[in-house]
């Protein structure tokens, strides 16, 4: 039998065996179709009012990649209708968005506006993107130049908001490619956060990863007196930062002197993220600084974010993986996710479990705080990250 014949029979077995039929063709498609069927990420809140939500922006980031991969217009159309719900015909950003909050959260929908502008050349998307860009120009900063997360979080930077810098980089690439002040500023957002929140060698339960937040004034209840960082490493905050590192390198000019400073952060963190996984299950703890402690648990959104970033970082050549250990770690975690966090519903959709609702530094940022936050079924922050992780896994 020739090789191709053998391959053909193998495929036939896979296609026609009942077990294979029960499995979805693609977990990325299944996650997207399930979210769409539930109306998730459609630019509206539960009362049907416009909602400029970073979670929606994250889903759209995945749907765009799915559309580019499959050519299925339904994903593109879902993005368009969601974005139309939050931007008026003249380009006003709707919902509760006001520039004077200086919150970086809504800015995560900016890449969708830039994408639709490049696809349609409709002026409204450029007007909406310009609104976010104007916000960044006036965004309050620490004395070192680091963006505050929002006006009411005086002097504070959170690693969770780093996905928003993707917009800053894309906007610069589209409209101001030679604005070196902007490129240097984007890079310095990453290097400042890294410097200010990196766990010091010799710390108890050393991971060498990044604490959740930083307060330049060192006055927040959670800020360490010596460096101003929060007490714990929270998986999803690091997950957002880690995804942003990989995605920003795709946009940032390789010839710019600061490209290496961003890549070096990724090179430092990638093996540490790999090594922080629980050795048995291969996935990551909610509070990464307290592995195995009672009430701590394996959290699904952070895990999906690490899988996406590790696989994508290796695939695009940003993270070397000579011994294959990084991809191996990501695959192990991915299989755990499928076996433990994906539920098949009788209507053919999937549910996604074990994503923590929120992690905020409006309180004291202690271990007790993080483990006390509820888990949310089908939380879009986790489900969108699972979609992205699945896209990368299915690219292997
Ligand atoms: C370049 O970027 C900087 C920093 O974001 C900004 O202040 C400035 O307005 C930009 N320059 C132009 C010509 O748009
Ligand atoms: C180190 O980890 C252990 C096990 O999770 C935990 O009980 C302990 O509180 C941690 N120590 C610090 C200083 O975080
Ligand atoms: C799946 O999620 C929906 C809510 O989106 C819920 O009503 C349903 O009970 C869940 N199914 C299972 C098996 O958990």
From TrEMBL:
GO biological process: carbohydrate metabolic process
InterPro entries linked to this entry: 6-hairpin_glycosidase_sf, 6hp_glycosidase-like_sf, Glyco_hydro_88, PolySaccharide_Degr_Enz
Chain coiled-coil ranges: none
The keyword Signal appears for this protein: yes
GO molecular function, one term: hydrolase activity
Domain of life: Eukaryota
Protein name: Glycoside hydrolase family 105 protein
Biological source species: Sphagnurus paluster
